[in-house]
Amino acid sequence: MKTLGILGGLSWRSTTFYYEGINAGVEAALGPMHSARIAMWSFDLQSFFGEGIDWRSDPLPFVAAAQRLEASGADGLLIAANSVHLHADAIQSEVGIPLIHVGDAVGQAARSKSIRQIGLIGIPATMQENFYIDRISQYGVEVVTPTVEQQTQWGELIYGELFAGEVTDSGASLMEDTLHYFDNHACEAVILGCTELRMLPRPVGSLPALDSVDLHIAAATQFVLGKD
Q1: pLDDT in tens, 176-195
Q2: CATH number of 103-212
């Protein structure tokens, strides 16, 4: 079994999804009492917000954490957040072990389902920067983002409610409106491109969803089991 290094704490709730999912996959494959070999660096998320702080322009904290995990004996890396893949290339260039990229997991799943056009929901960084969309586009999939107003609303909802573990009617309403927008723009499915989005209900009969967490966990589990 390989050792997986996880950059977590982004938020801690999202990290628990990954930790539980990967261990459940290893147990299912190998039997009871088996669990994954995991080394983890957990960030204090709040430290990335405040006056004069811009996590989007500074990869150094993430690179340093990845290097610590590599030094601890990790055979591969995983970032337990879609948005922090903004720094995936910077991290990969400074370590000698592979990084399991969420965009590859999502793109491969979309291609396997013959999806040609797909909607994307996440925090503004994920929807506005090219790091995520371009990675998925390599698999022959066109990515559609919500309106600018909806993107702002998603940022407010995710940071203001979901990161704190709160689920309100406003989230369900925004999800419905966004999925309606995607449906009107010929999307065949939607990417849940933020780990906390799985906390929100989706309308019955809405577009099929590709949950980035589930797909990323599956790829990580295969890596840990030596089946990558």
Answers
A1: 999 999 999 999 999 999 98
A2: 3.40.50.1860
d(CA 7, CA 69): 9
Q: What is the pTM of this model?
A: 0.92
CATH of 3-101+215-224, one of 3.20.20.80, 1.10.3720.10, 3.40.50.1860, 2.40.50.140: 3.40.50.1860
Rounded Cα gap, residues 193 and 103, in angstroms? 9
Give, in order, the Cα–Cα distances in Å from 45 to each of 59, 164, 167, 177.
14, 11, 20, 29
How does strand 189-192 pair with strand 117-121? parallel
**What DSSP letter does each residue of 142-187 carry, written as one string?**
EEE---HHHHHHHHHHHHHTGGGT---HHHHHHHHHHHHHHHHTT-
